[in-house]
Amino acid sequence: MIMDGPTNDRSLEVDIQTELFLQLAEIVSTTTRTGPALALACERLATILDCTRVSIFLLKNGQVIPRMSRFANGVIAPGQWDEFRTSSAANNPPAVVSEVLVRGVPVVCSTYENDWWSQHFDIASMMAVPIGNSSHPLGVLVADSQVPYEFRPEQIRLATALGVQLGGIVALARQIEEQHTRLGFAEASRELYQKGSLSTTTLGVAETLARVTAKVLGGPIAWSITVNTTGSITQVTSFGVPRDTQEKVRVALEGKPFASTALGGIVGPVWTPLQIDEEISTDAFGLFGVRSGWCIPISCLQENLVALVIVGGPSAGDFAEARHRDLVNFLAQETSLIAENAILREHDHYQATHDSLTSLANRAAFEDYLAYALAIAARTSGRLAVLLLDLNRFKDVNDTLGHHIGDALLNEVAQRLTSEMRDADVVARLGGDEFVILLSTSADINGAKNAAKRLVTALEQPLLVAHRPIWIGASIGIACFPEHGADPQTLLHRADLAMYEAKRTTVGVVVYDASVDRAQSSVPGLLLELPRAIQQDELVVHYQPKLDINSHEVLGVEALVRWVHPTLGLLGPEQFVPLAEATGIIRQLTSWVLTTALGQAAVWRASGRALRMSVNISARDLADVTLPDRVTAALVSSGVPADQLTLELTESAIMSDEAKGTEVLTRLRQLGVRISLDDFGTGYSSLAYLERLPLDEVKIDRSFLGGGNGAESFLVRSMVKMGHHLGLQIVVEGIEHWTSYESVARIDCDELQGFALSPPLEAAQLEQWLDDWTSNLPSGSSHPWRQAE
Hints:
rod-shaped; 4 domains; five-stranded antiparallel β-sheet; alpha+beta; Beta-Lactamase; 26 strands; Alpha-Beta Plaits; 29 helices; eight-stranded mixed barrel
């Protein structure tokens, strides 16, 4: 070797120093790490000095970094250096290292003392020189030999000169490292904020941190783990990991309490980054395939752990450099803030896409679901259906039982709808008592109708709210893709039209077609025009006679409102009264009908026609405590005796709020007004109600006639006997045919009413009809109706 013996060729030493320095400088200029340069220096100097090995111990923040000894010549006994790396003696470098650091001059031990180093590495002789400025060394360069060796002056000079040069190299490398770290901070921060701030979930933030940290550290493996508020692991994702490993880790962790896992035990309750090395990676971290790297917790919301990121590689020591600690701590702190914002955004997003009362999807979210499903169906020639559902008597429940009961009822409806539908279907609340369902799995028209009928049947069963059963029906309109539309707005609009047609016709389920569109096109306008129609006398009242079954005389009439629309012509009550009931205009409409009908009754009384007047009232009217006062005002204004007025109401109207309804009815009875229960047998139909309610009359619904055959006659006969037993007058309505009259005439009812006798007529037409009826009534005829026909 060049340096085997004494030499005076100082120029050769300079050449060797220059060549080595240039090599080291080239390495430093092309890397941001000191490791490669220090490894080359150790390897070359060990060859030049013809010694066993050369090691470097660096100072950083006043502490010797013993791991730097890994840069020794690895040709000789590499296993011994692995032993050193894991040994407690690594924290106690050879004594000559401390001496050089204190004195700042080279130290040579021709006969090395017997210590841990000599025993493990067979050190017989050692030379140590300072790295960098002797007054403030950056570390110590150590050369040792396994045989007694007398280091010559030129070797000491060369090692000392190399130590000075290495000081410059280390200082430059550290400067480049720090600059790179700062740039890494900036780059990582920019990427973390750009991508993490867009995430609306904790998982998204965790995945962003995993990618950013892996990129900065150069680690090929990254895992992200999310933890819910109860401390359970909810999702595990990874990058750079084989699929079978991903599945094994996911199955092992998802759904388990994080604190109960070995990983949770290592991380502990204090959420600070943990450096991963080979020693702990054999435990919980071994599952992730990371032997060197970082475990980075993300905590927020009162210091709760919400996610965990594991980044590194499969080789020991590669990603365990202390310089990464500041970067990792910084990223962990910033990510915790970003995660907290993401949780808040996630909550805001949930609030924006879900109904706050029922937790179902809201209109905006449903339209997004529908648009996505339509796009898929269009590409795959698929089918889907929209079912728009409206509750039939919800407003009555809300008005009579209170909004808290109405809200609870809506929750029960939401749960029942969800339980009836498949997981692939979407159930949403549009607002009020309107719900919508997306059938997205091969839903043809027949399948949609069957599903809708199933929902109607399910909602016909009582719902238990506040320990009381409530009966609530539903009407459903159906629109299908591709038959009825290809965009969300069209399908929802046409399903809405079909729903309103189902409600208007009381058939339960209607599929959209062109006739539905024509029939309902004027509904929004009617709703806006109805208050004006009341004020400008566009409404008229028609009167249908009620015949005494024994005397064959017409003793009373029922007032039925009509709307003479300026462009649509004569509209029946079924076309606008439900609108009035749904919007609260019904009170104004009822008052107008009362005043008009009683005014006409007064005119007839003045002309010698003393006819009882029957007027229909709704559930909203019955829930209004001012109704008796309004009735009193109308009676006083007309001069008609109270007992000549009959107020007709349905069972469902009474039972929407039985207590309040009974109270209002009792006050009306105290005025002398007669009370009639309309459509008996079609509502709640509890006979006990007939005894409790202040009634004068019961009207048996037309659905029980059935053309007058024996079975229906038996039912009607039973109702008549029961009503008479309770002291009530019995009216059979819906007499459409002579055969119905023949049947009813034999069962001892009191009055009858129907189109076969007369349809509802205007006042002048009814007067003419009454004159004709009276003049054609033969004395003693048992069937005057036959002659009238």
